[in-house]
Amino acid sequence: MDTLAKHVRHAVIDTESRRLAEVVAQADPQAPVPTCPGWDLADLLYHLTEVHTFWSAVLARDPRDDAAVEAIEEDKPARPATVAELLPVREAATAALLEQLGALDDEVPRWTWWDADQTAGFTRRMQTYEARSPARSSTGHAPSGCTTASPPHA
Fold first, then answer.
1. Alpha-carbon gap, residue 23 to 29, rounded angstroms
2. pLDDT tens per residue, range 73-111
């Protein structure tokens, strides 16, 4: 992937993640997310934080088996009690993801949930598309994970 395309993908992840955080910071964090039954805005922001934490760790630690991936999943930070406390945790998680994505070329082998593409490039593309999902949650498109996951309650 050329440098410009990589930069654009990282900018989308950063911009959309910041946009969601700004919306949640200014809105009622307990407002329901219509496309995610049972979720509220704070749940959605925490989910984004968990996702960025998980994928940055996958990229950094390079797990090669299910046990190593599960260890990463279990190593997530505790959910902060308030949105005000969650905001800097989300910012750090996004920064860590972008740092790892910036350090790896697309061809570098890394675990993903899709057996057909086990590369850092898959994670970069997936996170770019997922970054757009929360911003579209009010348009009828379900953000990633909302239709299959339970709300990420503490």
1. 9
2. 999 889 999 999 999 999 999 999 999 999 999 999 999
Q: What is the pLDDT of residues 119-151, one digit of tens each?
A: 999 999 999 998 887 644 433 344 455 554 556
Calpha distance 76→81 (Å, rounded): 15
Mean of per-residue pLDDT scores for the chain: 88
User: Which residues are 40's β-sheet partners?
Assistant: 32
H, E, C per residue of the chain:
CCHHHHHHHHHHHHHHHHHHHHHHHHCCCCCECCCCCCCEHHHHHHHHHHHHHHHHHHHHHCCCCHHHHHHHHHCCCCCCCCHHHHHHHHHHHHHHHHHHHHHCCCCCECCCCCCCCCEHHHHHHHHHHHHHHHHCHHHCCCCCCCCCCCCCCC
Whole-number Cα distances in Å, 52 to 25, 91, 110: 18, 10, 15
Taking a C-beta distance cutoff of 8 angstroms, is the pair 98, 14 a contact? yes
Record the tokens describing residue 91, joined without a space: 């910012």
